[in-house]
C-alpha cells in the first residue's frame, strides 16, 4: 500500500522586494529543521534553496550553514511558489498460511512480536489462514513546486468527447470486485488512486495519475458533496494524513479500491470510515 503525507508552504506575494546585503546571507541548520521549513522562512522555493547551496538531495544536518539569498544585491518582483511535500510510505505484506503463528511470522521477517502486532494494530495473537499482514514499512519524501499564478487543475485536467460524471460512475461500477494491487491502475488490479484515475480516464477525461494526497491537494474543497466528487480518508496511524480516496456516489455511499476487499461500494457513515473521514474535494475539469 502506498500512503502519502501532504504539506503546503504558504504562497506569499512579494512586491518590489529588495535584497540589500552585498554578500550572501546564511542560516545555521537547527535540530528539527527541514528544507521546506527553511525555504518558507526565507520566502524561497525548496528548489531555489537547493540551487543556492548546490544540494542534490533534501538531506541536511544540524549546524550546517545554508545560503539563503544571492550574493549580489538586486530588486525583485515575484510571487513565491507554493510547494507540496509528499511523504510516500511503502509497505510489504505477508499472507498467513496453515501452521503460521504471529511469533513464527515475526521471526521470519526479523521483527519482534510486539513490532508485528503494532504494524497491524492487533490487540491479540489470533490470526487466520488467508489474513494479510504488514511485515515492513518504509518512507520517502518528494517536494513538488506547484505552478505560479495558475490553478493546478487548469493545466492538469481537460474534457475530451463530452465526458460526464454518470459515465465516470458507470465505468467505476464495471470493475467492482477487481482485487487490490499496490500502484495498480488497470482491471488486473487497482490501488485507490489508480482506480480513480482509471474511472475518469475511461469516461473520457484527460487526467494525470497521482497519489491520493496529491489529488487532495489539487482538488477544490466542497462542504456539500455531489455525485462524482472525491472523498478522502486517513486510515493510517496518523489521522491527519490523507492516504485513501474514493468516488462519492451520493446518499453517503462511495466506490473505492479497498486494500482488503478490492473495488467495492462502502458507506461513509460506517464506523470505520466515519472516524477516518478527512473531507470531500472536486476536481476542476
From TrEMBL:
<keyword id="KW-0378">Hydrolase</keyword>
<keyword id="KW-0732">Signal</keyword>
<keyword id="KW-0788">Thiol protease</keyword>
<keyword id="KW-0677">Repeat</keyword>
<comment type="similarity">
    <text>Belongs to the peptidase C40 family.</text>
</comment>
<dbReference type="InterPro" id="IPR038765">
    <property type="entry name" value="Papain-like_cys_pep_sf"/>
</dbReference>
<dbReference type="InterPro" id="IPR036779">
    <property type="entry name" value="LysM_dom_sf"/>
</dbReference>
<protein>
    <submittedName>
        <fullName>Uncharacterized protein</fullName>
    </submittedName>
</protein>
<dbReference type="Pfam" id="PF00877">
    <property type="entry name" value="NLPC_P60"/>
</dbReference>
<dbReference type="Pfam" id="PF01476">
    <property type="entry name" value="LysM"/>
</dbReference>
<keyword id="KW-0645">Protease</keyword>
<dbReference type="GO" id="GO:0006508">
    <property type="term" value="P:proteolysis"/>
</dbReference>
<dbReference type="InterPro" id="IPR018392">
    <property type="entry name" value="LysM"/>
</dbReference>
<dbReference type="InterPro" id="IPR000064">
    <property type="entry name" value="NLP_P60_dom"/>
</dbReference>
<dbReference type="InterPro" id="IPR051202">
    <property type="entry name" value="Peptidase_C40"/>
</dbReference>
<dbReference type="GO" id="GO:0008234">
    <property type="term" value="F:cysteine-type peptidase activity"/>
</dbReference>
